[in-house]
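From the pipeline queue, job 12 of 40. The input is one protein chain; the requested action is below.

Action: predict structure.
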Amino acid sequence: MSERVMIAVISWNTRDLLEECLRALAERAPAAEVAVVDNGSSDGSPELVRSRFPAVTLLQPERNLGFGPAVNLVGRQTEAPWLIAANADTALEAGALEQLLESAARRPDAGIIAPKLVLADGATQHSVHPFPTLAVGAAVALGLHQVSPRLGDRICIPGAWNPERARAVDWAHGAFLLLRREAFDAIGGFDERQWMYAEDLDIGWRMRRAGWSTIYEPSARVRHAVSASAKQAFADSELRQSRAAYAWMARRQGLPHARAYAALSLTGATARIALLALPARLAPKRYGAALARARRWRALHRVGLGNRHSLTEGFDDAPSPDGIRLPG
């Protein structure tokens, strides 16, 4: 690897996973520079870095910065042409960094290159998504991806997309992202108002508006333990993520757009619940799980019908679960 790469690992109370992450980086990306931003862990994570990984730079801000601002902190301290934003619950597989850099070399328009994220059971995590446009909301609500597999693959719908196909996507999960420094600097890095969740949606959106692409590269594989920190911080991390996405929509696309998207999603979910109610009663083993998913989908999107205050409450100057105030 001839390119200079700085890897920013963002850590909060996942000591064992952090150790696995750093060991994988030491073995599979030995030439990369690594910095850990510890956001106030109480499980011995900082001590682990100091004692077992002396070559890793440890940064301990006075408060919990969240994800995006912590990556920005590392970015300000390096001139490396490539920056990786990584959760501590990820582990690089052999050859993944080289594959990401090769993909970036083939696509000079790529501001973000995302790997395939692999779950503990070996399954592929659904980690790429379309922007939440009203056209996408209507297509999902009407189930058009079930009628047209090509559409489902094109807009990366769970269960309908091909995870083995490299492609340009709207945005990718921020668990592990290779960022082209030129593009990252051009848009001002992560928006620090996105304290936790939707920062990956936001940076993908701003990259696109600035003329940069996000590329999904499945030949690069990264293991992911999925929301290891968030599950400790929030009683319902999925609901928190949904609220963050709708707060983002209200800020970037306008409150009417957020409400319209929520209404489309709720209409589709309510229709599916109505269609599944009787079959699930008659054959619960066959239809019960689908009914439960539809009800969960409705619950997650109901938050989008709120007013601006209810959407942003908890994201603007409100206390987080660990007592640290969130930046606005």
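Job complete. Residues 255-282 form the longest helix (28 residues).
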